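hiii, so i know i said id send this last week but things got crazy w the move. better late than never?? heres the sequnce for the chain we talked about at the cafe, plus the structure i predicted for it. fair warning i was half asleep when i ran it
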Amino acid sequence: MGMYPVPPQAPSTLGVEFSGLVEELGGEGGKEGREEEEEGFQVGDEVFGLCYGGAYAEFVAVSTRMLVRGPAETWITAIQAMYLIGEFAPGKTILWHAGASSVSIAGIQLCKANKAGEVFVTAGSQEKLEFCVKELGATAGFNYHTQDWAKEVLAATDGKGVDIIIDFVGPSYFQGNLDAAAKDGRIVHLGALSGTKLPAGVDMGAFVRKRLRFEGSSLRSRDEEYQGKLRDMLLERALPFIRSGEMKVYVEKVFPWESIVEAHELMESNKTKGKIICTIE
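okay and structure toks below
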């Protein structure tokens, strides 16, 4: 839509997440700010990471605080939403909208590995719902085309609602989120796929009645210190499970760089389950 806030230091080249090989290191060889590891990065290391922009380029310069030896961005976004904003703790219930998106796929697995209570999802097809429940381990899923997902969440929780809601949709889900949230619930707003204007008739009473907190956030505009903190949380809360195979990175399709247009068209189709990757030979 072209409305996502872009940080001023971002180049015109697209892309915020990348993977590849370390070509060159500055400073002290990548050891700065890395107390959790015995050694820094070395030339030739395979890494994943984040940048403010330019990840579609063949080369990118980033701080080593933004690098990790493992899949990064979707897990970092999920950790930010769950922990720093949603205040997740073991036993809490959570609803992930866009259940088959890469961030929600990561989030569902994080919830299961870190002892969430019940984990619910919404998605637009039965195929995606079955994937979230049977493959990822979500408690239940609701089709937003054919079901009133807010009512279904309340029914599944005996009228209590869920403690945390992660939303990428915005206005068209706003009332449903208020209805489906539990008392003292947290609604985390990460996107506005349905626009930025609330529909007429929204009832805001739940904010006071349920003591709800609604908070929006973006990751790309955060400073290096904040993103480095999230990276450290990934090392603690996700990477061990990824390395053990308990949590997985799901890839929908891999394209050669020359097919970048087709990759974007597939993404826009809203039929994917997981990451779309473009490779540069």
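btw The chain has nine helices and eleven strands. thought thatd interest u
miss u guys!!
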